[in-house]
Design brief:
It is built from four helices and 26 strands. The protein is mainly beta. It folds into three domains: 75 residues, Nucleic acid-binding proteins (OB fold (Dihydrolipoamide Acetyltransferase, E2P), Beta Barrel), CATH 2.40.50.140; 67 residues, no CATH class; 114 residues, Copper amine oxidase-like, N-terminal domain (Copper Amine Oxidase, Chain A, domain 1, 2-Layer Sandwich). The protein has a five-stranded mixed β-barrel with strand order 3-4-5-7-6. The longest helix is centred in the first third of the chain and has 29 residues.
Length: 342
């Protein structure tokens, strides 16, 4: 049986109205259950006020100056001229840590087998490709406890370089050096181990620490890299200081290193190429390196020139010159043809 045209039109109108009503209900439900606006804590000299965040001016970012950490139980120790500890986490993964004279060990940590600790170590440094991996510990803290620990570099506003943590110094904040002595200098651009219990739920998080330990700047920062000795075939060489470039890669002076390896080093003014030995060439600003008649070797980092000195990424020596080893460990840049570390 066919429905009258008038009835079909009425049914169509009813369906359209019903669809609009459902859409309106969904909109109201979504609005009702939407989370409240995030608030940021803004300090004034006398009062703390809150304001809605429209767009955070500080965006957390990856930073090589903020330490990684590994939590586990000490399952082994090697003592002698140097102290190494082996940590094993709950998943059975292991990592070995070198405890140097510059490693800060919290007072309530006992370096003994069975102790549960958290080891912090410098991010971004290439180490020998061995298992378990091995790092130099910058800080060793207790694994359990009511407080949190953050290790990294802070700027002149006491904001961590990854933009995640802002410090406020309170009357009860204890500030000491690694040796436990009172520290009264500026905290700007220093590496700090920060102990805190409470932080704001803002970006960046803000906290008033109970303890701040000012750490030596020996590896992570540009100042630390510049102090690294360069060891070629087991001997320290005299050379311009290494540095970190804008990509957080350690750059080393190529001339002194290749000459210590008994290669010649020249600059061809006609082509604008640096020549290592008879067959290796590279150009400042070009990340394509040539080795004889082989296809160009493309690295992530191009050579750079600073004050008339040519620098290459330290892994140039393993990936382009095919040296067995080019790595950073225990605060040293090591390049040699000894047994390959892997």
């Amino acid at each position: 049986m066919k429905l009258p045209v008038v009835m079909i039109a009425m049914l169509t109108s009813i369906m359209m109205l019903l669809g609009q009503w459902v859409a309106n209900v969904k909109t109201h439900i979504k609005h009702f259950f939407s989370p409240p606006a995030v608030v940021d804590v803004v300090e004034t000299p006398d009062v703390i006020v809150e304001k809605p965040i429209v767009e955070s001016p500080i965006v957390p970012k990856e930073s090589m100056d903020v330490d990684n950490s590994f939590a586990g139980t000490i399952v082994g120790m090697t003592m002698g001229d140097s102290l190494y500890i082996m940590l094993e986490n709950a998943d059975g993964a292991r990592t070995e840590f070198y405890v140097s004279v510059d490693t800060y060990v919290f007072d309530d940590v006992k370096i003994m087998e069975g102790e549960e600790v958290v080891a912090y170590y410098e991010k971004g440094l290439i180490t020998p490709a061995i298992y378990p991996p091995r790092y130099t510990a910058s800080v060793i803290a207790p694994k359990a406890g009511p407080a949190s620990v953050f290790v990294g570099l802070f700027d002149d506003k006491l904001l961590s370089t990854d933009g995640n943590l802002k410090l406020h110094i309170g009357d009860d904040t204890k500030i000491i050096t690694k040796d436990g002595k009172a520290y009264t200098g500026s905290l700007a651009n220093e590496r700090l181990a920060v102990v805190y219990a409470i932080m704001t739920m803002s970006i960046p998080a803000q906290t008033t620490p109970s303890l701040i330990v000012v750490l030596p700047q020996e590896v992570t920062t540009s100042t630390g890299v510049s102090k690294m000795p360069i060891i070629v075939e087991g001997k320290e060489i005299k050379a311009p200081a290494a540095y970190r470039n804008s990509q957080d890669v350690i750059m080393v002076p190529v001339k002194e290193i290749v000459e210590a390896l008994d290669y010649t080093f020249n600059y061809d003014k006609t082509t604008g190429l640096y020549v290592v030995g008879k067959s290796i060439t590279f150009e400042i600003g070009n990340n394509s390196y040539s080795y004889g008649r082989m296809a160009p070797i493309v690295l992530d980092v191009a050579p750079e020139e600073v004050d008339g000195i040519a620098y290459v990424p330290f892994f140039f020596f393993s990936q382009v010159m095919h040296m067995n080893n080019a790595y950073i460990f225990e605060g040293q840049i090591v390049i040699d043809n000894n047994e390959k570390m892997e």
